[in-house]
Write a structure and sequence with these properties.
Order of helices and strands: HEEEEHHEEHHHHHEEEHEEHHEEEEEH
Largest sheet: 8 strands, antiparallel
Distance between the termini: 11 Å
Shape: globular
Number of strands: 16
Strand content: 15-25%
Strand order of the largest sheet: 3-2-1-16-15-14-13-12
Number of helices: 12
């Protein structure tokens, strides 16, 4: 087990690579955190807006997008630890909208050409995102994908409706695949939050705050930014794919994160800081413990952070890695645990066993048990162009080079 800190010369190289991206004008600002061997190093550079303004700071709050997924799943793991959920229990008692599912005969077929589901959807199916529905970023024109967008089940164009209405809409659609057959992106992570709320009788955020955020000291993590802290949230940009011009996807004041949402979406709606996320991933590296307090059982962490997919189930994972913006290095991990990617082969500089995920707003957070490393990089620049993925790719490439023991 390697636990040495990172040499100063390696950290300087990381700094220089990050600075090059900011100085290019393509990335207005960023905050990065590297932790190893009991030492933590933070870089904050650039500005909150693309045209200048306040500088990025260590406590800047970011929209975590899909980097929320590895954190949101902890709520379900607590319920598994307490035997309030069981992996192979059907979800119908809590999610009756998903009873008696129909399944498309062909994934590209009409929505009324279906067969009955072979079996009920289980908790395991939801946790592994194999319950039968998911975003296919390589085939957004399919009838089932269009229907999900029209029903606003993904929240990309506008905020999601409240959970019961979201579930009602979800229940009107057939599944793309039989339960347990294939991995499908994103929808399962949002569904998990509804499941947690219905099992506990609390809102998803209340349960997370009580059992995860509070004990870990994640004071700046939640589903919106209060008015007193809104100046710490930069605007979120989705640069024009052709020109690269900075287009505002979401402003801070008056934006979608300036007030509590109707739907607390574990798939991509958290806001947080590098230090809050560091506390969470450090807890996972410590097998579920934070100081003397246990947040998750060691077994739960091992289950979350080990590949759970068969080669057949993860065909869609491979397609996503090979045919989207992920081709810059994001997404090439080989596996998926609960709520996060797990690296099963040496496809780049990172170690086998590394776990975490990336976010479409320009965020990345992973931990590496072999190197005892946590790396987090947060920006306000979305992945509508190659600039943010390339920055993330270069961050990880340089960071792994800096480990020389």
């Amino acid at each position: 087990m390697k636990s040495s800190a990172i040499a100063a010369s390696g950290l300087r190289r990381v700094h220089d690579v990050l600075a090059r991206h900011v100085e290019s004008g393509r990335i207005p600002g960023l905050v990065a955190l590297v932790s190893r061997g009991g030492e933590t190093h933070v870089e904050a550079m650039g500005t909150m807006r693309h045209d200048g303004g306040a500088p990025m700071r260590r406590d800047t709050i970011f929209r975590m997008a899909s980097t929320s997924k590895p954190v949101g799943v902890a709520a379900a793991m607590i319920l598994l630890d307490e035997c309030r959920l069981r992996l192979d229990d059907p979800v119908e008692p809590w999610l009756p909208e998903l009873a008696d599912r129909r399944v498309l005969k062909r994934v590209d077929g009409p929505l009324d050409d279906t067969v009955p589901a072979h079996r009920p959807i289980t908790v395991r199916d939801v946790l592994t995102c194999t319950f039968g529905l998911g975003m296919d970023l390589t085939s957004l024109g399919l009838p089932i994908q269009s229907a999900m967008q029209e029903l606003n089940l993904t929240g990309h164009a506008e905020p999601l409706p409240e959970p019961d209405e979201w579930m009602r809409r979800l229940g009107t659609l057939p599944l793309m695949f039989q339960p347990g057959e294939r991995w499908g992106y994103h929808i399962g992570s949002d569904l998990l939050g509804v499941l947690v709320a219905r099992v506990t009788g609390q809102s998803y955020e209340e349960f997370l705050r009580e059992r995860v955020f509070g004990p870990l000291g994640m004071e700046d993590t939640g589903f919106h930014v209060p008015p007193s802290e809104i100046d710490r949230l930069p605007p979120s940009y989705a640069p024009d794919p052709q020109s690269g011009k900075f287009l505002v996807w979401d402003e801070a004041a008056g934006g979608r994160f300036s007030r509590p949402p109707e739907f607390q979406a574990g798939g991509g709606a958290l806001v947080s800081t590098v230090d809050d996320f560091h506390a969470y991933f450090q807890m996972l590296l410590h097998h579920g413990k934070h100081g003397t307090e246990r947040i998750l059982s060691r077994s739960a962490v091992e289950l979350m952070t080990t590949n759970r997919l068969t080669p057949e189930q993860q065909a869609a994972r491979e397609a996503m890695a090979n045919n989207t913006q992920a081709s810059y290095g994001l997404g090439r991990h080989g596996g998926w645990g609960f709520g996060m990617a797990v690296r099963t082969y040496r496809g780049d500089y990172a170690s086998v066993g590394q776990f975490g995920w990336d976010g479409g707003t320009g965020t990345t957070a992973y931990a590496d048990p072999d190197k005892q490393l946590v790396g987090i990089l947060l920006t306000q620049t979305g992945m509508s162009t190659a600039d943010s993925p390339r920055l993330i790719h270069d961050f990880w490439t340089t960071l792994y080079q800096a480990i020389d023991d």
